[in-house]
Amino acid sequence: MNGSLHSAANVVDIKLKRGPAGLGFNIVGGVDQQYVMNDSGIYVSKIKEDGAAALDGRLQEGDKILAINGVLLKDRTHKDTVELFRTAGEDVELKVLKKPRHMNGPTGSQPDHQPSVSYLGILAVLAGAAAVIAFIYKRRN
Fold this sequence. Notes:
Elements: E1 11-17, E2 25-29, E3 42-47, H1 52-56, E4 64-68, E5 71-72, H2 78-86, E6 91-97, H3 119-140
Antiparallel strand pairs: 1-6, 2-3, 3-4, 4-5, 4-6
Pfam families: PDZ
Main location: mitochondrion
Keywords: Membrane, Mitochondrion, Mitochondrion outer membrane, Transmembrane, Transmembrane helix
């Protein structure tokens, strides 16, 4: 996802009122510290219990924040985005790309990542194990 094409059905506007502990969520990402491969967007990494976001219920971990009070977050550093949140005022409007929800399988709280071990890697390990077993078997006979 390059941040330029989004289904309108997955983009929502969420208005939050800053509480005593802020907006009640943490973010990751930015052009200086990509969280999702080939995407420098800003993502919700944690929703704080009893915070403004948790009480509202619409913002979820893994959602991508596209704009704060109408200011687009495309091509911004993490620090710059944190400053935008800090100075956004008491009433904050977010434009959010909802994390895709899959119909089959478990739903996680993290953005989708590539698996750390590829199927080809697993196949190579299995082939190596088979070769070792064959070698041991030949030496015994």
